[in-house]
Write a structure and sequence with these properties.
Blueprint lengths: L1 H7 L5 E4 L7 E4 L1 H20 L3 E5 L2 E5 L2 H23 L4 H12 L1
Antiparallel strand pairs: 1-2, 3-4
Helix pairs in contact: 2-3, 3-4
């Protein structure tokens, strides 16, 4: 949670000025935000590309791999990532709300 809280703070931009090039300004923060937004998608494609196998935890057996399992992981990953972002920032961007709604509804 601490790591995601620190990553959520990356939404605020840090401007870096260089003495050699006074007109050159780099803004950091938006790259980390984009990476966080793509985490559920990366999880989806990773699980989708896996060969199907059964995972047993105690008496619970679940099949991992394939499109249906990838959709389950996409739903869980989206709720986890955007839930942590909402808890850390107390807000989500409009695009993030649309993404969460699309994943949950479809």
């Amino acid at each position: 949670m601490i790591l995601l809280h620190q990553l959520a703070k990356a939404d605020t931009f840090l401007q870096i000025y260089y003495d050699d090039h006074p007109g050159l300004v780099f803004e950091t923060g938006s790259d980390m935000k984009q990476f966080i937004d793509y985490i559920p998608l990366l999880i989806f494609f990773t699980v989708w590309a896996m060969d199907e196998r059964s995972v047993t935890i105690g008496d619970f057996e679940h099949s991992v791999g394939g499109i249906f399992s990838a959709a389950e992981f996409l739903l869980a990953g989206s709720i986890l990532v955007y839930g942590c972002l909402f808890a850390a920032q107390r807000r989500l961007d409009k695009f993030q709300w649309i993404t969460v709604a699309a994943v949950v509804l479809f």
